[in-house]
């Protein structure tokens, strides 16, 4: 505690000291103030200036303050105005509980000089609490023999409020038996008593439910309710009574032991022990006690012995019911024994034939049986039947004998087994029925031929396959059974005798798997057809057939073949190109074919190597070799080109061809086609002296050169040989595999090609696709004309 501060205990001791030692300083008059509970903080209570008789300025000067006996600041003194202000909300029930009035004592203290003024604050009650019953369910047990006017105490409702706000009244829900009587307790509170107006009858109304309501005196009043349950206690004032005075029962003679004959029931309006009943026989004979028994609690009468209609047709049984108070009631049971149909029909099978063939004729006897019923009269008359929608028929024969025969043809493939239920019903009441099941099996007859799953099959196999390759399967089914359904497959003789079917395919006779016996070649055989047969093992055997078409799928197994220029010629072909040729000038055309088909035969051309890259180009789709730019004097005279021909297969196959190109100026330069000459040109240059000697020798031998040229011209005419500068033409036919098998652009076997330089044109022009079948004499004449043209240029 900080210095200068005083605890409440110290303040109280100081005040008491001043009170006892300075009694003359305390005013004997007590001022009274009042406030309603639950008022808001800051509410005005009163003004002490008028009561004290001092000025407002004295309050502040003399340090006026309010001190309650419990030292709690319920009020606050405004020294500027002298007003007493509510400092906190007051709860009367918390401050004074049930004490009324609720007074809070306090003092007003003034200093300099010290002076006390006594005062009290009365807290007024408001109706802020609802009455409550401590027990919402009030249970009262009252005997039905209680006399009217008897009162019963009940718990009162509790209300925290006091005075008129406390419980002031009780009400009871309307009823003919009870009413309320209000009483005042010693504490001044009201409570209610329950008074009985009329006698109670438990048998009519065993329980009453009443609503008790408590009301306070507030405005508006508050209320609470409680449920009052009145249980009426029983007295033994009622004797048992049976539901019927006479019970008439029909019992079949074949009722088993312990079967229920009848269940009697009596009622007693009393409750508890007075309502508990016990059943028993009353004055009955020994035969009844041997035949029947009654359960003392449930009242069930059951058989102890079997009944026989021929011995005793009826029984009269007297029974009684006694309650716990020894009051009893009586009744009678009349039991009539009924003759019943207690013997079911019997079925005796004499003979049964199973299985039966499916091609059995109608009226074939399947089974013979007899019927018997030990009853007589209508109970012994019988009706026999089988299920509907069966290919069988019942025929009565001698007395109670019946035969089961076929009514229509059977088909094992539709149904191989019949479960036939023979039902026999007598004409008794109730009707008794006997059922007997027999199973008839249908044996198979070979009446169904094997059927292929498809009328025709299309199989695909890639060429160059491995021998014994499984290429597909055929399948046939037979609806028969056993050996009649075992299918054997075979190859039927081909319709086309030229197809070597036995060397192409084979079939597994057990499962119909097809195998290629050898490797197939698409170029030789693209497709073939054959028939397969399926036969069962019945007697006689039945068969069917189907068509199988095998398609051979092409494989990229043929490399492109170059038709022009041929690479196996005795002399290489050299193409002449004038140096004055423009860009795009056609030098030559590479012609190639492919023995495959489809995309495997699509050819593309590519310049693989060149003496001078960039000078020549090859068109990818047609193989034309053209100049890529203008020629110049700096370009080499001789060029070697390697052209690659490639197909579009997977993987692609290719071939290459070598072309020799010679650049000439107006075709006036000497043509040196031989490879030996090319090697000689590559030799190192001779010294200057050698060139001078050669120049003098050339002038001297001009005459000799003219003579040699004349002799060469004569030889060309006589031998029909090609002159210098002309390409060799292959004789004979090309290999047989270069055949147009697809019609997609490859060349026929009847064509070969030559290339020649036409005379008189002045430029390199070429003739392609000239048929070998044309007149040979035209070729000779063409050679002669070209020879004359070359002689005009001075070639040897």
Structural overview:
Keywords: Calcium, Cell adhesion, Glycoprotein, Membrane, Repeat, Signal, Transmembrane, Transmembrane helix. This is Protocadherin beta-18-like. Helices cover 12% and strands 37% of the residues. The protein contains 10 helices and 49 strands. Helix 9 runs antiparallel to helix 10 (776-793). The model is unreliable at 1-24, 668-686 and 721-796 (pLDDT under 50).
Mean pLDDT: 79
**Largest sheet composition:** 4 strands, mixed
Rg over alpha carbons? 69 Å
- Helices, by number, come to 10
What is the strand arrangement across the widest sheet?
Answer: 1-7-6-3
Going by CATH, what is the homologous superfamily of the largest domain? Cadherins
Distance between the termini: 146 Å
Q: Which percent range fits the helix content?
A: 10-25%
Q: For this structure, what is the CATH class of the largest domain?
A: Mainly Beta
Q: What structural category characterises the helix and strand content?
A: mainly beta
Main attributes of the structure:
796 residues; mainly beta; Immunoglobulin-like; 6 domains; four-stranded mixed beta sheet; disordered N terminus
Q: What order do the helices and strands come in, and which of them pair?
A:
Elements: H1 8-21, E1 26-36, E2 44-47, H2 48-52, H3 56-61, E3 65-68, E4 75-77, E5 83-86, H4 92-96, E6 102-110, E7 115-124, E8 137-143, E9 151-153, E10 167-172, E11 178-184, E12 190-196, E13 207-216, E14 223-233, E15 241-242, E16 246-252, E17 260-263, E18 266-267, E19 278-281, H5 286-291, E20 292-294, E21 300-303, E22 314-322, E23 328-338, E24 346-352, E25 356-357, E26 365-372, E27 382-385, E28 392-396, E29 401-406, E30 417-426, E31 433-443, E32 451-452, E33 456-462, E34 469-473, E35 476-477, E36 488-491, H6 501-504, E37 505-507, E38 513-516, E39 527-535, E40 543-553, E41 561-564, E42 574-578, E43 586-589, E44 591-593, E45 603-610, E46 616-618, E47 624-627, E48 638-647, E49 654-664, H7 675-681, H8 688-700, H9 702-719, H10 776-793
Parallel strand pairs: 1-7, 8-14, 16-23, 25-31, 33-40, 42-49
Antiparallel strand pairs: 2-5, 3-6, 4-5, 6-7, 9-12, 10-13, 11-12, 13-14, 15-18, 17-21, 19-22, 20-21, 22-23, 24-26, 26-29, 27-30, 28-29, 30-31, 32-35, 34-38, 36-39, 37-38, 39-40, 41-44, 43-47, 45-48, 46-47, 48-49
Helix pairs in contact: 9-10
């Amino acid at each position: 505690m900080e210095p200068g501060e005083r605890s409440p205990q110290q303040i109280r001791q100081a005040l008491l000291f001043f009170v006892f030692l300075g009694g003359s300083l305390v005013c004997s008059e007590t001022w009274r103030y009042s406030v309603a509970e639950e008022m808001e903080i800051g509410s005005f209570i009163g003004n002490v200036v008028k009561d004290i008789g001092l000025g407002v300025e004295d309050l502040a000067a003399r340090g006026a303050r309010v001190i309650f006996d419990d030292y709690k600041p319920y009020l606050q003194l405004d020294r500027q105005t002298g007003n007493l202000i509510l400092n906190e909300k007051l709860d009367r029930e918390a401050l004074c509980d049930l004490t009324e009035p609720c007074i809070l004592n306090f003092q007003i203290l003034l200093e300099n000089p010290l002076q006390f003024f006594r005062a009290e604050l009365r807290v007024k009650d408001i109706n802020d609490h609802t009455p409550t019953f401590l027990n919402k369910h009030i249970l009262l047990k009252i005997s039905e023999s209680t006399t009217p006017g008897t009162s019963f105490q009940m718990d009162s409702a509790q209300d925290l409020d006091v005075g008129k706000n406390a419980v002031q009244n009780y009400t009871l829900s309307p009823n003919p038996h009870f009413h309320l009587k209000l009483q005042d307790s010693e504490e001044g509170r009201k409570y209610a008593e329950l008074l009985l107006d009329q006698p109670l009858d438990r048998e009519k109304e065993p329980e009453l439910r009443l609503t008790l309501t408590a009301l306070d005196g507030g405005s508006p009043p508050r209320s609470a309710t409680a449920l009052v349950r009145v249980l009426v206690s029983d007295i033994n004032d009622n004797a048992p009574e049976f539901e019927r005075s006479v019970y008439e029962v029909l019992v079949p003679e074949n009722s088993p032991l312990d079967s229920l004959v009848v269940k009697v029931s009596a009622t007693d309006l009393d409750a508890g022990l007075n309502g508990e009943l016990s059943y028993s026989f009353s004055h009955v004979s020994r035969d009844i006690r041997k035949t029947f028994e009654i359960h003392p609690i449930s009242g069930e009468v059951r058989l102890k012995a079997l009944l026989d209609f021929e011995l005793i047709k009826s029984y009269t049984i007297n029974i009684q019911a006694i309650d716990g108070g020894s009051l009893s009631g009586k009744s009678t049971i009349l039991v009539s024994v009924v003759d019943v149909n207690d013997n079911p029909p019997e079925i005796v099978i004499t003979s049964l034939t199973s299985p039966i063939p499916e091609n059995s004729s109608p009226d074939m006897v399947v089974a013979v049986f007899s019927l018997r019923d030990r009853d007589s009269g209508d109970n012994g008359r019988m009706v026999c039947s089988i299920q509907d929608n069966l290919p069988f028929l019942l025929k009565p024969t001698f007395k109670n004998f019946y035969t089961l025969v076929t009514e229509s043809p059977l088909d094992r493939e539709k149904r191989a087994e019949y479960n036939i239920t023979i039902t026999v019903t007598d004409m008794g009441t109730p009707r008794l029925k006997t059922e007997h099941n027999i199973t008839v099996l249908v044996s198979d007859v070979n009446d169904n031929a094997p059927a292929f799953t498809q009328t025709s099959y299309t199989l695909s196999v890639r060429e160059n396959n491995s021998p014994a390759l499984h290429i597909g399967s055929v399948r046939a089914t037979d609806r028969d059974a056993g050996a009649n359904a075992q299918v054997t497959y075979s190859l039927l003789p081909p319709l086309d005798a030229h197809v070597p079917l036995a060397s192409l395919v084979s079939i597994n006779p057990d499962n119909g798997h097809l195998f290629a016996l050898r490797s197939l070649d698409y170029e030789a055989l693209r497709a073939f057809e054959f028939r397969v047969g399926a036969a069962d093992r019945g007697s006689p055997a039945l068969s069917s057939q189907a068509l199988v078409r095998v398609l051979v799928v092409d494989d990229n197994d043929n490399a492109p073949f170059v038709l022009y220029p041929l690479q196996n010629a005795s002399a290489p072909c050299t193409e002449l190109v004038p140096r004055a040729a423009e860009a795009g000038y056609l030098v030559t055309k590479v012609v190639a074919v492919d023995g495959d088909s489809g995309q495997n035969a699509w050819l593309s051309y590519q310049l693989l190597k060149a003496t001078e890259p960039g000078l020549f180009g090859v068109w990818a789709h047609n193989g034309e070799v053209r100049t890529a730019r203008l020629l110049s004097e700096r370009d080499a005279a001789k060029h070697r080109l390697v052209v690659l021909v490639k197909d579009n297969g997977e993987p692609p196959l290719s071939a290459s061809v070598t072309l020799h190109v010679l650049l000439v100026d107006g075709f006036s330069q000497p043509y040196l086609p031989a490879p030996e000459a090319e090697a000689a040109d590559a030799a190192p240059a001779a010294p200057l002296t050698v060139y001078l000697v050669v120049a003098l020798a050339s002038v001297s031998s001009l005459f000799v050169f003219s003579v040699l040229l004349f002799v060469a011209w004569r030889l060309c005419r006589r031998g029909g040989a090609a002159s210098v500068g002309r390409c060799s033409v292959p004789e004979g036919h090309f290999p047989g595999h270069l055949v147009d098998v697809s019609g997609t652009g490859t060349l026929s076997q009847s064509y070969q090609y030559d290339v020649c330089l036409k005379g008189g044109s002045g430029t390199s022009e070429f003739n392609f696709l000239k048929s070998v079948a044309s007149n040979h004499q035209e070729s000779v004449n063409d050679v002669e004309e070209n020879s004359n043209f070359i002689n005009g240029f001075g070639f040897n």
